[in-house]
Design brief:
There is one protein chain. The protein is mainly α. Helix content is 72%, strand content 0%. The longest helix is centred in the middle third of the chain and has 27 residues. The chain is elongated and about 60 Å long. Keywords: Glycosyltransferase, Membrane, Transferase, Transmembrane, Transmembrane helix. This is Uracil phosphoribosyltransferase. Pfam families: DUF6341.
Length: 76
């Protein structure tokens, strides 16, 4: 059983985390490229936020939501 978990550790440390090791070694040369994964995740989050706000505005413009205070049981 110990060999199984050591095999999983070897897989992650030597193969699956190799791209992150390369980015870490790049840090001294270029801070921006070393954090490219963070930048991509922030861009995806901003785009998702803008999409969601546009969808909410569309629902508000079409007046599809029942805004009566008694419309939802948890408000009454």
């Amino acid at each position: 059983m110990k060999d199984f978990f050591e095999g999983i550790a070897w897989l992650f440390e030597n193969i699956l985390f190799y791209p992150y090791d390369a980015l870490r070694s790049l840090e001294l040369d270029s801070w921006f490229f070393a954090n490219i994964v963070n930048w991509l995740l922030m861009i995806i989050g901003i785009l998702a936020f803008l999409y969601w706000m546009r969808e909410l505005k569309g629902y508000n413009d079409r007046d599809e939501e029942n805004r009566d205070p008694s419309a939802h049981s948890f408000l009454g």
